[in-house]
Amino acid sequence: MSYLTESLKIEILMMIGYGDRARTQCEVVRLFREMHPDLPPLNQGTINPDIIQSTVSKIESKFRETGDVKDLPKSGRPKITKDKKIDIVLSMEENPQ
């Protein structure tokens, strides 16, 4: 799912619709494939893969839970930026203790 751009995820949500105009996830997959026949299949590992029903389900669930389609920040130790590294080196040069 993370290979889809935000605009494609929003397009999928718009295809789902709401209320009595809502489509099934299978209908959304079919419609998306019709509208984007140029996208390569999922198994080729490219940046804009074809979608499957579970992809639509995950996008819809994420939107209902968070109100957004953006991926959440990854957990783990944050990377030190180049500016922060420079600040550390300068402070060590000024005060080597």
Helical residue percent band = 40-55%
* Broad shape: elongated
Query: Would you tell me the overall average pLDDT?
Result: 81
Q: Structural class per helix/strand content? A: mainly alpha
The Rg value, from CA coordinates, equals 21 Å
Which oligomeric state applies? single chain
Give a description of the structure.
The chain has 97 residues and is mostly helical. The protein has a domain at 6-71. The protein is 51% helix and 0% strand. The chain contains four helices and no strands. The protein has helices at 6-16, 25-35, 53-66, 82-94. Helix 1 crosses helix 3 (53-66) and helix 2 (25-35) crosses helix 3 (53-66). It is elongated and about 70 Å long.
Write the layout of secondary structure elements.
Elements: H1 6-16, H2 25-35, H3 53-66, H4 82-94
Helix pairs in contact: 1-3, 2-3
Short descriptors:
mainly alpha; elongated; 97 residues
Quick summary:
With 97 residues, this protein is mainly alpha-helical. It contains 4 helices and no strands.
